[in-house]
Amino acid sequence: MTSTLPTENALFAANLEATHHRTDQLFFWLLLAEWAVAVALALVVAPAAPGLPSHLSLAVVGGGFINVLPLILIWRRPDWWLTRQAIAVGQMLWSGLLIQLTGGRIETHFHVFGSLAFLAFYRDWRTLMTATATVAADQLIRGVLWPESVYGTANPQWWRLLEHAAWIAFEDGILVFGCVRSIREMRVIARREAALARSTEDVEREVQHRTAELAAANASLQTEMKARLQVETDLRQAHKLESVGRLASGVAHEINTPVQFVSDSVHFLRDATTDLLTMIGHLREVEASVLNGTPSLEAAEAAAYAAETADLPYLIENMPKAIDRALDGLERVATIVRSMKEFAHPDAIEMAPVDLNRAIESTLVIARNEYKYVADVVTDFAVLPPVRCHAGDVNQAVLNIVVNAAHAIADVVSGTPARGRITVRTRLEADEWVVVTITDTGGGIPVAIRDRVFDPFFTTKEVGRGTGQGLAIARVIVVDRHRGELTIDSEVGRGTTFFMRLPLHGVVVPAADAAPVGAAA
Length: 521
Known about the structure:
This protein has a five-stranded mixed β-sheet with strand order 2-4-5-7-6. A two-stranded antiparallel sheet has the order 1-3. A hairpin with a 3-residue loop joins strand 4 and strand 5 (about 435-440). By secondary structure, it is of the alpha+beta class. The chain has helices at about 10-40, 55-75, 80-100, 105-120, 125-145, 150, 160-220, 230-290, 295-310, 310-345, 355-365, 370, 390-415, 445-450, 470-480; strands at about 350-355, 375-380, 385-390, 420-430, 435-440, 485-490, 495-505. Mean pLDDT is about 75; it is low at about 510-520.
C-alpha cells in the first residue's frame, strides 16, 4: 500500500509558507497605517528646511513611493522571497522618513528597533540583513548630507553613528538567533507531526493485518485441532485490538472537549479584535478630522457607536480569560497525547527500569473515558526507585483492573446521581517489592465466584460488555511474566481491592514462559 502521508519537509514548508503569508498580511496593514500616521504627523510639525519639500508633501509623496512596490508585491506575490525583501526595505525607509518628519527625535529612532522585531516574524534572517543594510545606508547618507534629519542637530558627535549601529547590531544578533532557533523548532514540530501520522498509519495497517490473521485462524479451527493454542492467542490479540479501538474512541472524545473550548476562545478573540480594530479606525478618523481643523460629528458618533457596540469593559474582562482557556485546553491535549505515547511505547525484550508512578498516571489518563462518568480516581503514590519490569505489560495489567473497577462501580451507581471512587496507591515493601493497590467502591465479589475471577473467559457481565479475559491477562502479566503476586480482598457491598506485588529489581524469565497478553475485558 502506497503511503500518501505528508513528509517532514512538506509539513515544514507548509507551516513556513503559512507564517510568511500571515506576516505579509500584517505588513500590508502596517505599511498603510504608517502612511496615515506620517500624513497626520506632517500636519502638526513645522515646515521643512528651505529648499526641501514640505513635510506634508514628503509624507504623502514619499510615503506613497515607499509603499507602492511592497503593497503590489503583497497583493500579487505573497510568500515570495523578493516580497519580503521589498517589505524590509520599505519598512526601514519608513523609519527614516518618520525620523526626518520629527526632526531626528530620539523617540522616533525606536521605530527602527520595532521594525526589525516585526520583520523577525518572517523567521528569515536574510530579511533582517536587508533591513539593516537599508537603515545603515539611510542614516549614513543623511547623517553626512543632512545630520539634522537624523540626530536633530547640525553638528552631532562623531560617535553617534557608531552608537546607533551598535544598538542595531545588538538587536540583530538577538533576532537572528531567535529566527534560527524558531526554524529549528518548526522542523522538530514537522518531524513529530510526520512521525505521528506514520504511527497512525502503522496502527491501522496492523489492525487490518491482525483482523485478517484472526479470520484465517477461525477458518482453520474446524479442521485442525492442533491449531487451538494459536487460535486462542489470536483471539486474545483480537480482544486487545478491540479494547485499543474503544480506548482510542474515548481518547478522541477527551481531546475533543479541550479542542472545542480552544476553538471557542479563539473565535471570541477574533471577534473581539475585529471590534477593537473597528473602533480604532473610527478614532483615527476623529483624530484626522480634528488635526485638519474640521471636526467631524459623524466620525465622532461612529467612534462612540463602535465603542458602545464593542462593549469594552466586557472585552477587557473576558479577553485574558479566553487566552487562559485556550492555553489550558492546549495543555490538556498535550497531556493526553503524551500519555498515549507513553502507554503505546513498545516494550523491549529485556526488562528495563521504569518510573512506575508516571506509567500508572499515563494509564489512568488513557482509561479516563471508561470511569469518568461513574467514579472519581484518587492517587496516593509513594516515592519509588525505578522498577525493573516490562512497562507496557504492567500498564496493561493496571488498565484491565481499573476498567474492571469502573464496570463494578457502574453496576452500583447506574440510574442514580451517586459516584464511586477508585483509589490507586503505590508503596515500597522491604526494599524488595513494589505494591500497587487498586480499590473500588463497587458491589464486591461474592465468595462463591471469588476463586474464579482470574480464570480465562470467566465473566459475570452481560454479552458484549465483557469477555472474561481482562483479569486473566492481568494475572499472566504479574504472576507468569514478572514472578509477582496478584491477590484480592473483597467484601460484598463494600468494594474490592486488588494487590499487585512486583519484584523491585525484576526477574529473568525464559522466552518460552513469556505468555502473550491482551487487553481489558
